[in-house]
Amino acid sequence: MNKIEALAKIIKEAKLTSKKFKDQNGNASLRISNKELLLWLAGKTIEQDKDILILKTTVKMLVIFVPVMITLAILL
Questions:
Q1: CA-wise closest residue to 46 among 7, 15, 17, 11
Q2: Distance (Å, rounded) from C-alpha 40 to C-alpha 48?
Q3: Are the C-beta atoms of residues 34 and 14 closer than 8 Å to each other?
Q4: What is the pLDDT of residues 15-68, one digit of tens each?
Q5: What are the extents of the domains in the chain?
Q6: Which spans in 1-76 are helix H?
Q7: How far is CA 43 from the centre of its chain?
Q8: In the chain, is it the N or the C terminus that has fewer CB atoms within a 10 Å radius of its CB?
Q9: Considering only CA atoms, which of 40, 43, 52 is closest in space to residue 30?
């Protein structure tokens, strides 16, 4: 996912979160600014992207090394 798609995803999530808040609380004032909300969502998205990348890497390593280990165990 390139940076523009990631930013579009973050903005969409911010709009949905803001809409949910307004639906739940009516016209009550939002104590956090839109800028803070966007920065928080951006941070969370980046953290999730890092976690997904780590998990993908781990799975790929297991897919490669487990068959090798099984083959070595059978041969020895």
A1: 7
A2: 12
A3: yes
A4: 787 788 777 777 666 677 777 777 888 888 888 888 899 999 999 999 999 999
A5: 3-75
A6: 3-25, 34-75
A7: 9
A8: C
A9: 40
- Cβ distance 12 to 44 under 8 Å? no
Match 């999730």 to its residue by tokens: 48
Residue 69: both structure tokens together: 């280990």
69 within 8 A of 50, measured Cβ to Cβ? no
Q: Which two tokens stand for residue 40?
A: 């928080």
Whether 9 and 52 have beta carbons less than 8 Å apart is answered as: no
Contacts with 11 (C-beta within 8 Å, 6 or more apart), sequence order: 38
List, for residues 39-54, the tens digit of each pLDDT value: 888 888 888 888 899 9
Give Cβ neighbours of residue 38 (< 8 Å, ≥ 6 apart).
Answer: 10, 11, 14
